[in-house]
Design a protein that fits this description.
two-stranded antiparallel ribbon, alpha/beta, 7-stranded parallel beta sheet
């Protein structure tokens, strides 16, 4: 029996960037399901953007189906919640989603111990039942709502930077939002904020263009050669997870300042 004084490593977590669209080829949705299967088989927790449609939604649904809602944490800015989740009338204005209302509503649910938000907000009445219904936790997993897109990306990086061995970032096919997140992760690594790897799942050659851009930028002297190692390409979800190397066991270079759901990963 292990000594109670021996501290186990924190769980491995992978943050996945993906589109809220499905794409024209079925290969992209298949890759999302396949990645969820690999994460489940290896007992890896999923961090993602909180969307319920497209590749994002398929990935989260499949991971929850296989392992339960505690294995998935969606991180979403309040302004986007209404466009991604079912919204009731009391948090909408003139038929439009009130993002701040969503942010406040979910924040008050911290008292229920299920969904944590690390921003100060004006309290609104909420119940655990209402929150669970609005967020579809049993389908898409737990949710943390941030105040902005910038806060969302910062929290994703912070969670992965302080996670267990072999944690990192994977990008499935996506558009401007996914590209923004990829570049944020890479530039944060260049600045020494974290040591985690970024892997692009190159389904059907989707990321060939960005790989070519990196090569051309190195040729023209605007990137150092070693920059190519910060953005690896792999063909399958399994290869992507395999590519995430064990990082240094040194103390993380950033410390957690934001709390997320205490139920996540249990």
């Amino acid at each position: 029996m292990a000594s109670p004084n021996v501290l186990s490593s924190p769980p491995t977590k992978i943050c996945v960037f993906a589109s809220t669209l499905s794409g024209h080829s079925p290969l992209h949705l298949e890759s999302a399901r396949s990645l969820a299967q690999v994460l489940h088989e290896r007992n890896i927790l999923l961090i993602y953007g909180g969307g319920t449609s497209g590749l994002m939604g398929e990935l989260a649904k499949e991971r929850v189906r296989l392992g339960g809602k505690e294995t998935v944490m969606g991180i979403m800015p309040g302004a986007l919640v209404g466009s991604e989740r079912k919204v009731d009338k009391d948090i909408s204005r003139n038929g439009k989603v009130d993002g701040q209302g969503w942010f406040n509503r979910i924040s008050t649910s911290v008292r229920a111990g299920k969904c944590c938000v690390a921003q100060q907000t004006s309290p609104l009445p909420s119940t655990d039942t209402t929150k669970s219904s609005l967020l579809n936790e049993n389908i898409y997993g737990l949710t943390t709502v941030t105040e902005s897109l910038a806060a969302r990306k910062a929290l994703m990086i912070e969670i992965i930077a302080t996670a267990g061995p072999n944690s990192g970032f994977i990008a499935l096919s996506g558009g401007f939002g996914s590209l923004d997140e990829i570049m944020e992760v890479i530039t944060a690594r260049q600045m020494g904020v974290h040591r985690r790897d970024m892997v692009l799942c190159n389904v059907d050659g989707f990321w060939d263009g960005i790989s070519g851009w990196v090569d051309g930028t190195i040729e023209r002297g605007f990137l150092r050669t070693e920059a190519k190692d910060m953005m690896m390409l792999r063909s399958t979800p399994e290869q992507c997870v395999d590519a995430l190397r064990r990082v240094s066991e040194e103390k993380p270079q950033i410390e957690r300042t934001t709390s997320i759901s205490p139920g996540f990963g249990k």
